[in-house]
Amino acid sequence: MIMKTRTLSRSAFIILVLMLLPAVLASPNQKTVYVAKFEGVITSYSVDQFSRYIEIAEKNNAEALIIEIDTPGGSGQAMQEIIQRIKESKVPVIIYVYPPGAIAASAGTYIALGSHLIAMAPSTSIGACEPIMGYASNGSIIKAPAKVRNFYVAYIKSLAEASGRNVTAAERFITEDLSLTPEEALRAHVIEVIANDVPDLLKKANGMKTKIPVKGKGYVTLNFTNARIVSIEPSFKDEVVRYISDPTIAYVLINIGILGLIFGFLTPGWHVPETVGAILLVLGIIGLGYFGYNAAGLVLIILAVIFFIAEALTPTFGLFTVAGAITMILGGILLFGGGNEYLIQRSTFSTLRAVIIAIAVMLALFFAFGVSAVIRDRKRKAQTGKEEMIGEVGRVVQELNPEGMVKIRGELWKAESKTGERIGVGEKVRVVEVRGLTLIVVPEGVSPDEKKEV
Questions:
Q1: Of 3, 14, 44, 325, which is the most exposed, with the fewest CB atoms less than 10 Å away?
Q2: Catalytic residue among 4, 27, 140, 147
Q3: Residue range(s) defining the domain that contains residue 199
């Protein structure tokens, strides 16, 4: 019996060890690959987004960071800042043109060539990097001058040379506006991998060496065996900015905003057109990418303060207050972000978001009722001396026939009945005029112009 019990205990112990062994062995050395997504035009906001992705991967000591991109290009300055951030990354950054149908055009191509590894999904494209200065009023493209063009040719060639990729093809991306399919790019040694999805990418890139050195590690051989995939989702502010930073949407917002301001100034007193116009105009300017997230948030907060002050100075029945609260909340979200931000973590932001909304509401109420009341009181015409007595109500203490004495504010005054009629002791009278030190009064409830009946 004792032998049988010992055998059962030993078996149970072995089973428990076998169950816990995988977790014990896997946890300390678990390799993690972070996967993030970037869509839309590259602006100054994109720099913050790429930096956030890289910092999250660095903080968690990731094996690599894969950034799925689908972009038509964008700001040259922002593109250079992103490439510099990739070069300073302590983890390998893989640019993956995904999903099928996505493109990495113009600035997106530069970013890809500046990364540690490039992968493309089927039915995607890369290239078309000719720099432009914008669009003419008739919609035609304004090409960059020769010196700008030559700078970008030299820059893209240096990126290709540094990573050992095809320098000739890189130059043709600008000089001939060349675009390549995944198969063409792979044959031309522009990219390293064609993959259907992230698991396929990890399988094919496993064992490859990075094309440029990783900061502090040099050239790294990628090891994705049994790697765990963790997704980094775009934050709420990323999604908002992605939509308003679309050039078409930004242009429409600016024009509607200007029209709203013009219409509001032409129809004073309504205040709705200029309020909406101001908000749309600021959002459109923010969408053009001239600000970073922090600067954009501050711009919206400043606009909110302007709305609050306007509410205090102008009676709008709460319109400016509501506009101020909305812009204050939007500004707070852009200023601090949401999700796994490098400034504010998710757990902190959930509390911060409530604080932002609460403060916006309290400020709105304060300006709507408190400050506006103070300003209205200060605007009220000051009344002192004789004018201060007009309209005051007192009680007769010595019969007015027509003169007598009244008591007002605890003080005795000589008074005279305006109508000449007798007013008895104890009756209430109201001051309608002051002559020297004599108050001209009428019985309370009687119009000053009412005549005594004869």
A1: 3
A2: 147
A3: 25-234
